[in-house]
Automatic annotation (TrEMBL):
Residue span of region Disordered: 98-117
SMART domains: HTH_XRE
CDD domains named in the record: HTH_XRE
Protein name per the record: Anaerobic benzoate catabolism transcriptional regulator
Source taxonomy: Bacteria, Bacillati, Actinomycetota, Actinomycetes, Kitasatosporales
Domain HTH cro/C1-type: 12-67
Matching PROSITE patterns: HTH_CROC1 (PS50943)
Amino acid sequence: MAGSELALGKTIAKARRRKGWPQRDLAALIDRSESWVSQVERDVIPVNSLDVLRQISDALDISLSDLLAAAPPGPAPVLERQWEVAGGLDQMVRAARVKGAEQPNGGSGGAEVVRGA
């Protein structure tokens, strides 16, 4: 698609129109609001979930690789979010370890927090 690459939203909109569907039909199939579909198609908001991209891909009969190829260059929003979550989990584990070190009896309370997370 070099030279004529579409943004992800434009790719989704084009595939939806090719099926003759209004945004509300796609929204219903992927369990999202019509407003959400509109914003994604206008590239106002990103699709931050690989599962949602798969749902869109299945609904529109377009390959997931085509959707990913239309996504903006750089780290995929999905991966960025995974790193954010991983960083948050890392901070929680570190905090639990510090809390556990402050507990009497070698900090067994901190290990319980980690196991329960």
